[in-house]
């Protein structure tokens, strides 16, 4: 059954080239009656007869010839574009736009760039970094993104690309030489702390887990 406009135009091209509904039907894998009905509907919509029909032959009218002159190259371009796109199934190529956090760019993306470039030389990675807690991949025309799981919208398709990340609160030896070491997270409110901001999402909220089996003192690493 010939349904959409592009299929109808392809059907008209086939009938005009074959000069036969029967041969065109065999070429397209549809019945001659379905072709005749589709082209008649096209003629009624545009208000012009495109094919002259007799019991023995079918031939384009003057209007049909004018349409064919524009239709052949246009359909050829469409088929060429479809063939080019379908070829990407076997050999990935083109541009992939990624939106990632600076931390993800350093920890997840950077270590894999060398191998990716070797395995997929025809793919160009277009990477944008942002500190926004939540960014709209669709509105930004991105193909994918890398961010902390807590910032990923629920309706997005997500796969883990790294182990779970754990944060640590650290201080330098010189700082603890002048300040008492905190014994609980609540003590941090009396200390000078450095934090970071996820764009318009505001300051990152530190999260702590209570586990009496392992409660190390704050690190003195620089």
Draw up the topology in text.
Layout: H1 5-18, H2 21-28, H3 32-46, E1 51-53, E2 58-60, H4 62-86, E3 94-100, H5 102-109, H6 113-119, E4 123-129, E5 144-146, H7 173-178
Parallel strand pairs: 3-4, 3-5
Antiparallel strand pairs: 1-2
What does this molecule look like?
This protein has 222 residues and is an alpha/beta fold. It has three domains: 5-88, Arc Repressor Mutant, subunit A; 94-151, D-Maltodextrin-Binding Protein, domain 2, CATH 3.40.190.10; 166-222, no CATH class. It has seven helices and five strands; from the N terminus they run αααββαβααββα. A three-stranded parallel sheet has the order 4-3-5, covered by helices on one side. Strand 1 (51-53) and strand 2 (58-60) form a beta hairpin. The longest helix is centred in the middle third of the chain and has 25 residues, at 62-86.
Shape: rod-shaped
CATH architecture field of the largest domain: Orthogonal Bundle
Domain module count: 3
Strand count, sense and barrel status of the largest sheet are: 3 strands, parallel
CATH class membership of the largest domain: Mainly Alpha
Helix content: 25-40%
Strand order of the largest sheet: 4-3-5
Radius of gyration: 32 Å
Number of strands: 5
Give the N-terminus to C-terminus distance in angstroms.
Answer: 72 Å
Descriptors for this entry?
7 helices; three-stranded parallel β-sheet; 222 residues; disordered C terminus; D-Maltodextrin-Binding Protein, domain 2; two-stranded antiparallel sheet; alpha/beta
